Amino acid sequence: MKSIRCSFVVVAVFFMAFILTDACYGSFLDTFEEKISFWDPIGHALDPIEESVPGLFLRGFLRNRTYVNTHGTTQSEGVAGIPREWKFANIFWEAEVEWRYRFGQGYELVNILNFQYDAVDDWDESLPLNGEHYAERYRRFTDIFREFYLSTSRQSWYMRLGKQQVVWGKMEGPLGGQWNIVNPGDFRELGYLHEWARIPTWMANFTYYWSDASLQMLWIPDFEEDRGPFPGTTYQPPTSSGTFPPFFRITTDRVSQTDFGNHGYGVRFNMIKKGWDVSLLYLNKLTYKPTMFKREVTFDPTAPAGLPPYIVDFEKKFTRQHHFGFALDKGFWFFGRSWVFRNETIYTTNNYVSDRREDTFTPGVDGVAKRDTIGSAIAFEASWLKGELTTTIQPSILHYLDWRSTDGMWPEKSLPKDWYITVLALRKLWYDDRLGTFFTGYWWHHDGAFQCKSEVTFEFSDYLKLAVNYWQRMGNTDDIVGRYRNWDTIGVELSYSF
Question: Cα–Cα distance between 160 and 182 in angstroms, integer?
């Protein structure tokens, strides 16, 4: 059965590659080209609804994203020590429906519904022990009911109330996106950055405009924590089993959303002068990832043989952070072509890291140390070959203040004092901009690690798009990227937008 499934996937991949290659050379039959250009069955079905309800706008997409592990197996273990095969890293079936209704004097009501299912647990026989719990993550109402807000605007101000996401930064990458900290993140797919990577939350978003400046203010009463890979699934860190030792007792500090002390607040000031776009930000919020504070160590004479005779009590607590940011960007003409320069810098207080000086069984210490960080990224973007080729280079740094060599990432490795990551992105468009080739590489200089994504896309029409990509990771087994070096994948993505 497995060989049949794999053969089916191989045939499907080669069939898509044939279509892509055929399209690149323009050898599609004219009749087929014309038919596929106007193929939009759902869109045509929705037209009568939009026409019958003035002010209503409907759109969405259907998509399949399938990723195959190029190593065949990572030989890692899933839940209960069952070896995971990982022939398929993910088989995502996704859909999104968005409706917008404009009414009154400048009012708009927006709702975005997301539906996602990962069929990988139907193919991997090692997952059924926790497959149902894994699938449950895609059935939660909070995930399906992704955004819902009411917006309105006047001549000098704009307001949006409801569940939404706020994007402040213009850069990407592990360190380049440090300005995008308003919403928590969804990291269930390591490295697969896409439009669902931010988790929308309920907030009030108000912006006042002047002729060349604006002031944005946020009140965030809602709270969601970051989400990581589910234990036993594809991108659970290979150095972690996802469970704690039996002599650990873990309690979690529940965040009360009715307590104003747990709410988040943000301000962003933006000004444009003589082509310079300058922004300042301040954000006061709880961390989206809890810190494990050690609270008490108790002697346990009934401990089973082979285990320490102690019970260690930990509290997972979300602590408050303050973020101060500065950003600017400017377009200019240099070397016979147009360039864009960007910089985003942010200072963050109260980052907790594990303190390796404090032994697990030593009473009276909490096992962590508090550090402030400063991160900065710059980017240069230019267009070449009459705008068909775009290049971006983006070096970035994250520095820990008051760093000590005993600050730890995990037990076997110290936390680097400085993180250096450079991003190189290339984009080339062909065939009337329907064929696209993309490359994005990430160099983790402090670890000597590297990861990259190479992708080819083809737009059959305004509605139908095919993409084939390859993710590769290299490094040491004890660094963030290198421990996933057996997780290289080839992905095929087919999407239909309406």
Answer: 15
Q: How far apart are the C-alpha atoms of 308 and 303, rounded to whole Å?
A: 7
Q: How many CB atoms lie within 10 A of CB 254?
A: 10
Kindly report, residue by residue over 47-63, the tens digit of the pLDDT: 999 999 999 999 999 99
Q: How far apart are CA 415 and CA 72, in angstroms?
A: 32
Q: Are strands 248-252 and 310-317 parallel, antiparallel or unpaired?
A: parallel
- Residue among 196, 205, 376, 351 nearest 287 (CA): 351
Residue 247, pLDDT above cutoff 70: yes
Report how many helices (DSSP H) and strands (DSSP E) the chain contains, helices first. Answer: 5, 23
Beta bridge pairs of residue 383: 390
List, as one string, the DSSP characters of 338-368: EEEEEEEEEEEEEEEEEETTS-TT-TT--SE
Q: Which residue has the tokens 């898509």?
A: 16
Q: What is the mean pLDDT of the chain?
A: 85
Q: What pLDDT sits at residue 178?
A: 83
pLDDT in the model for residue 239: 59
Strand 310-317: give its sheet, edge to edge: 248-252, 310-317, 291-299
| CA–CA dist 245, 57 (Å, integer) | 53
78-92, 172-186, 208-222, 290-304: the lowest-pLDDT one: 78-92
Cβ(350)–Cβ(319) below 8 Å: yes
Full-model pTM: 0.86
